[in-house]
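S1.2 Input.
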Amino acid sequence: MNYCRFFLIIFIMLANLVFANEPVNFSNAPAELPYLIKAGDWIFRKGIQTDSFIVNQLGGGDFSHIGMVISIEPKIKIIHATTSDDENHLNQVIVSNLEEFITPELAEKYAIARPNFLSEVQKQNIVDDLLTKKGQAFVLAPREQPHLYCTTLLFDSIIKFQPDFNIEWKNTYFPSLSGSYLFPSAFANYSDITWIYKYPEKQ
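S1.3 Output.
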């Protein structure tokens, strides 16, 4: 499926909608944040671009993208499948620094959650498995077809080591996007997680 064509179609369909997001200043993130994060944590963000808006509309919830922390020293590193985070590595699985993942150019908000149902050994096994997928092509396709996008990157690795991990796939009926898809809200709504941090913090 032509990913760019899909978003062009959806954008035209939503052309009459008016939406705007002001970038958030992430300099307010707490200095101790890196010490709260562990490898295996999930990191979510709500993007400010058109494709992020569409994901939110279709999937619901607060976030449009997800990745997994793979290391914390010397910098926090996150693996995720993305279309345009890195202009030198488009439409593929990449590794980003925390600062790159939450930059105001890409994110309005972000949050970190810890999957309690995974052991430390399982988390490391998942990290190792995810790293074998670095550089693989981003493929937006329904569940019954070969696929690799942000949520399925994590899901397909997690179920290798925790087969009973069960989250909701949603059926969509948009042009070029009909079938069962997995959205970040499915991870955010999973019962056995602990929220480590959310930005901006609620007052």
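S1.4 Remarks. The longest strand covers residues 107-115.
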